[in-house]
Specification:
With about 200 residues, this protein is of the alpha+beta class. The chain has one domain: q2cbj1_9rhob like domain (Jelly Rolls), CATH 2.60.120. Helix 1 packs across helix 3. The model has no long low-confidence stretch (mean pLDDT about 90). The strands form two sheets. Strands 1-9-6-11-4-3-2 form a seven-stranded antiparallel sheet, with helices on one face. It has a four-stranded antiparallel sheet with strand order 5-10-7-8, with no helix packed on it. Pfam families: 2OG-FeII_Oxy_3 (PF13640).
């Protein structure tokens, strides 16, 4: 293994990990600037799949822009995430075939209520990743990711720019607390192929 031993070990031991400094401040600034320049292409996010998909502001208030693996604006972050995917496969034999991801922005006051990152009847999402793109985020700015842990407690992850949160998609319910200002991230899932 190389740079992601701590992520591998944490997923084995606890099922989740927070890794500060996944991107440098300059890399965060470049990615958030390119994301903000594309703000007009974002759309309100929904819940559910296929015929059950709906936009519901009582549950979820973010706006998203889906990315493909050739997106030039996110190339550096996507390459680094692909290296992490490779190491997770090599160490944990998870069969992760791809990254499904989007840029997300939560306008001030928006949130995402407690949920699990598995669609009903599917198990293709294996590992959730959230890469924060918020330079100079203060403790009073809100917008924490709240992970509900196995023992009934929770932990809050402050969305500091460059920090990567990683957790098992089928294991941890989580929510996004309301933020006091716009909150940006690259969010996605390492997926296995459907059988």
């Amino acid at each position: 293994m190389s740079g992601f031993d701590c992520v591998v070990n944490a997923l084995v031991e606890t099922g989740w990990c927070v890794l500060p400094g996944f991107l440098t401040p300059a890399e965060v600034a470049a990615l958030v600037a390119s994301s903000q320049a594309r703000r007009g292409d974002f759309a309100r996010a929904g819940v559910g799949r296929a015929g059950g998909h709906a936009v519901n502001g009582e549950i979820r208030g973010d706006e998203v822009l889906w990315l493909d693996d050739a997106d030039p604006a996110a190339a550096l972050a996507l390459a680094r995430l692909d290296a992490l995917r490779g190491e997770l496969n090599a160490a944990l034999y998870l069969g992760l075939a791809e990254l499904e991801c989007h840029l997300a922005v939560y306008p001030a006051g928006r949130f995402y209520k407690r949920h699990l990152d598995q669609h009903r009847g599917e198990d293709t999402r294996v590992v959730t990743i959230v890469l924060y793109l918020n330079p100079e985020w203060g403790e009073t700015d809100g917008g924490e990711l709240r992970l509900y842990l196995d023992d009934g407690s929770h932990t809050d992850v402050v969305p500091h720019g460059g920090t990567l949160a990683v957790f098992m998609s089928d294991r941890f319910e989580h929510e996004v607390k309301p933020a006091q200002r716009e909150r940006w991230s690259l969010t996605g899932w390492f997926r296995r192929r459907a059988l």
